[in-house]
Design brief:
GH, GH_1_N_CS, two-stranded parallel sheet, 6-phospho-beta-glucosidase, alpha/beta, hydrolase, glycosidase, 16 strands
Length: about 475
């Protein structure tokens, strides 16, 4: 009953801007991520409109996968990966996003990466846009607030599809697209840079612009899904949602209704559009009450309906509680926090650890959509210590992942169609929200530190050998 399918896609997940480095090598242009300074969980990153000399920009070197890809993929193969989730840096292919012809050196790099994966029997799972876009598009159109970005994105995807049609089968259009429903999504996912602040997290917010930008992403996603379905029937096209599971803090009906409302707009809104092909009924009231008017063009409804995804993927790290009139202690989390759940423990960064919440979430998603699911991010960010003998005993990470895999198997026994699992940061990389290296997720330790120093040497953690056994047993040996 709890046995995972025989073709289950075990692997790990990364993002180009957080681990590739080589930010200006071989014709690559600056992305939005390249304009973000370092920070910490106490000090926010800054967004700069020009590169400031003497300022640390973590994405510029990251962990330099660009020059270490053979070594890193060999380590993934040693663990037994069946798939490797990575993203393509848009500015390696189109440096400003507005060129008519792609940068051949960028395409050639990903050819080499995919060939290296396929050499070991590792199936690439490619995120087309993972929290970055050409910074030139931010300057020209204020990112996705401008409808012009749709055509530039479609051209980018057409190049990727044709170039890699024999090497990549699984594609995700936008990473955690629902970040655009949250204040933090302004620059992070939409490339929108509002006046008045250079604070990455607390940027001046304009909900009208955010939801307009989201609409443009929905249209862009649907257009490329339709292209894939018509021209490349071998492709499987997926979405990607940051799922923030929310519980009512109490059985007070006010708390229950508040949690339902938050779940609708933060978790279901984007996937209702990408999976069902239409705006959900509850969006109308939300837009009216928040004075949001999404400008749509003739044919947009048909585009959305014709571009529904084939499978649903999501990140899951934590859960939180919601109350109508919150007075309880607040905790942090992925993209947003919530109220402290007294029944859960927390990570070093204050994220509540809730393995059973993953089973609940898988069931909720599958009941709603009935299409194959994949957990493409899940993991524990923690401080890792190198012992005197060189070992890294990250039992806390093993415990976290083990408990979540156990609950995935319970969900499969419940009847959920689960196709794969790619824990986040299979190798240590830069934190998206804070720019830190200290917050480590990987099975592989990278000697790179918050001040930008480090040899970039790779070394296996205890979790490396554990995950190798998990994959070899298809999840039976935990």
């Amino acid at each position: 009953m709890k046995t995972l399918r025989s073709d289950f896609l075990w692997g790990g997940a990364t993002a180009a801007n957080q681990f590739e480095g080589a930010w200006d090598v071989d014709g690559k242009g600056p992305s939005t991520s390249d304009m973000c300074t370092n920070g910490s969980h106490k000090t926010p990153k800054r967004i700069t409109r020009q590169i400031e000399e003497g300022t640390l920009y973590p994405s510029h070197e990251a962990i330099d996968f660009y020059h270490h890809y053979k070594e890193d993929i060999a380590l993934f193969a040693e663990m037994g990966f069946k798939t490797f989730r990575l993203s393509i840096a848009w500015t390696r292919i189109f440096p400003t996003g507005m060129e008519e012809k792609p940068n051949e050196a960028g395409l050639a790099f990903y050819d080499r990466v995919f060939d290296e994966c396929l050499k070991y029997g590792i199936e690439p799972l490619v995120t087309i846009s993972h929290y970055e876009m050409p910074f030139a598009l931010t300057e020209a159109y204020n990112g996705w607030a401008g409808r012009e970005c749709i055509d530039h994105f479609v051209r980018y995807c057409e190049v990727l599809f044709e170039r890699f049609k024999d090497k990549v089968k699984y594609w995700l259009t936008f990473n955690e697209i629902n970040a655009g429903t949250m204040k933090m999504g302004n620059f992070l996912s939409l490339g929108i840079l509002n006046e008045g602040t250079d604070d990455f997290i607390n940027q001046v917010d304009n909900e009208q612009l955010r939801f307009q930008g989201l609409h443009h992403q929905f249209i862009a996603s649907a257009k490329v899904v339709k292209i894939a379905h018509e021209k490349y029937p071998q492709f499987q096209m997926g979405n990607m949602i940051c799922f923030i599971t929310m519980y009512p803090y109490s059985c007070n009906p006010d708390d229950i209704l508040e949690a339902q409302k938050d779940m609708q707009m933060m978790n279901w809104f984007c996937s209702d559009i990408q999976v069902r092909g239409e705006y959900p009924y509850y969006a109308k009231r939300y837009f009216e009450e928040n004075n949001i008017t999404v400008k749509m063009e003739k044919g947009d409804f048909e585009i959305l309906k014709d571009g529904c995804v084939d499978f649903y993927t999501f990140s899951y790290y934590m859960s939180s509680c919601v109350a109508k009139n919150p007075i309880q202690e607040q905790v942090s989390g992925n993209l947003m926090g919530g109220l402290k759940n007294p029944h859960l423990k927390e990570s070093d960064w204050g994220w509540q650890i809730d393995p059973k919440g993953l089973r609940y979430t898988l069931n909720e998603i599958y009941a709603r959509y009935g299409i194959p699911l994949m957990v493409v991010e899940n993991g524990l960010g923690a401080y890792d210590i190198i012992e005197e003998d060189g070992s890294i005993n990250d039992d806390y990470r093993i415990d976290y992942l083990k408990e979540h895999i156990e609950q995935m198997k319970e969900a499969v026994a419940d009847g959920v169609d689960l196709m794969g699992y790619t824990p986040w940061g299979c190798i240590d990389l830069v934190s998206a929200s804070t720019g830190e290296m200290a917050k480590r997720y990987g099975f592989i330790y990278v000697e790179k530190y918050d001040d930008g120093t480090g040899t970039l040497a790779r070394r296996k953690k205890k979790s490396f050998n554990w995950y190798q056994k998990v994959i070899a047993s298809n999840g039976e040996n935990l």
